[in-house]
Amino acid sequence: MDIVLIRHGQSVANQKGLLISNDQDDLTENGVAQSHALAARISAVLAEARWLYCSPWRRALSTAEIVLGERMPETQLDARLAETFPGRHGTWLEKDFNAAFPDFYQDLGRRYDGGESHRDMAQRVCQWVQTEIVPRQHEPGLLMAVAHGGPITVILQYLLGVPMEERYPSFTVPNASMSRLQWRADLGRFCLITAGA
Fold first, then answer.
1. What are the DSSP E strand ranges found in 97-151?
2. Treating both helix axes as pointing N-terminal to C-terminal, what angle do 118-128 and 149-160 enclose, rounded to 10 degrees?
3. Strand partners of residue 142
4. Fewer CB atoms inside 10 Å of the end CB: C or N, the chain?
5. Looking at the DSSP assignment, which residues form a beta bridge with residue 183?
6. How far apart are CA 90 and CA 185, in angstroms?
7. End-to-end CA distance of the chain
8. What pLDDT score was predicted for residue 37?
9. If phi over 0 gives left and psi between -120 and 50 gives alpha, with beta otherwise, what is residue 21?
């Protein structure tokens, strides 16, 4: 199995420097253009896809509608691929949140007020990996998922054996990027082919 992970295009929250935002945050004009450019780049890869998934958050859906095109009806929406829900802090500027809570990220189990923690997000994403990827890892074909920076980092760390508690995030991928992993039967593990390309 090969895996392709796509991060959504630039969103309004990304442009404004907000902390995560919420499930209704949509793409900017630039994010739409980025998604069209990505669609053109990966059309051959998309043709290989056997399994398609997407986060139900608006910015991921808008990206998937552009990138996956005619294959969108085949796509399974899965809430486990959503970004960390930041509760009332979603509309804060990231720099203001970091100034107010400078040690917040030292404890991955610390929840945003009215939201969830990065550990909460990681647990549901890992559960998705365990049910959707692990049972199929020996099968031929390609799995493609459109998601967010946090979940993509978790998937990469889980499949590459980088413990969350030691270093999170270990990967930061840009908007409208593609990361690809390949199952190596000879090694008995996934290997990273590209990250954030």
1. 142-147
2. 60
3. 2, 49
4. C
5. 190
6. 42
7. 19
8. 98
9. left
Strand partners, 5: 145, 179
Are the C-beta atoms of 118 and 127 separated by less than 8 Å?
Answer: no
Amino acid identity at 22:
N
CA distances from 28 to 25, 75, 176 (A): 9, 23, 12
For the record, the structure tokens of 33 come out as: 């253009």
Q: Decide if 122 contacts 108 (C-beta within 8 A).
A: yes
Closest of 176, 144, 149, 146 to residue 31, by C-alpha: 176
Quick check: 118 and 84 in contact, CB under 8 A? Answer: yes
29-41 and 58-67 helices cross at what angle (nearest 10)?
A: 40
Residue 29: exposure state from Cβ atoms within 10 A (0-12, 13-18, ≥19): exposed
Instruction: Tell me the pLDDT of the chain averaged across its residues.
Output: 96
pLDDT tens-digit profile of 143-157?
999 999 999 999 999
Residue 166, pLDDT above cutoff 90: no
**What is the identity of the amino acid at 89?**
H
What's the mean pLDDT in 109-120?
96
- What is the reported pLDDT for 79? 98
